[in-house]
Design goal:
With 225 residues, the chain is of the alpha/beta class. It has one domain: Alpha/Beta hydrolase fold, catalytic domain (Rossmann fold, 3-Layer(aba) Sandwich). It has helices at 46-59, 75-82, 105-112, 118-125, 133-144, 163-174, 208-215; strands spanning 7-11, 34-37, 67-72, 89-95, 147-155, 180-185, 190-193, 196-199, 216-218. Strands 2-1-3-4-5-6 form a six-stranded parallel beta sheet. The longest helix is centred in the first third of the chain and has 14 residues, at 46-59.
Length: 225
Amino acid sequence: MVGSSSVTVVVDGYRGRQDDGSGPLANALLDHPTIWNSWAGPDDSLCDRAERLVEWNTARGDRSTPVQLVASSMGCQVAVRIAEELEVIDEFVLIAPDPKARPCDRDAAEDANGIVSAFREAQELWDGAAVPAQPFSEALVTLAARTRVVRVVYCRTDGVAEWDRNVETLIAELAAVKGIRLIEAMDHQTVTASGLTVDLSAGGTIDVHERMWSATHIHERHTFR
């Protein structure tokens, strides 16, 4: 996946950390520049995380160096939001993206407990958009036009990034977009497509959304243009 003269930017999910080199980066060896954008604690928002990436991009010396974006869950929102700041994007892998076409069950639970929900943070990230999925999908389509390949890994039984009237809307909008490859993962199965494998064959009691990162393995750089 990773070229010798590129930098990988990993954008974690809403409130988690994936910086152990597992999952899609397991075969990348991590012997090249890698930027990890993770949740820093209770006061850290999606907007804060986007700002940190903008600051990193402004400070780096050679902005012509290609960037490989790998994002998980709500990290996909952050990655798409800041992508317009990046001059050269070679690849973009989105794992279990939650477009936020509507508040999902976890959003409702967070709001009920006085916690700022991911839906509300996504609204703030997209400048107060009533439906964050709209600017998210529009920006992703625009991004695909200048990225060598965009791969989107999703699962219909995802209990966090819910399918009904949410992820299904995003997938329908992306289905015919040139340069975007859609990989549908299936729980209790292994799926190989478009240069990566999603191995959920072991199943488990944890929601598939939480298992998608470690289950996804990128084999190699892939050309679709």
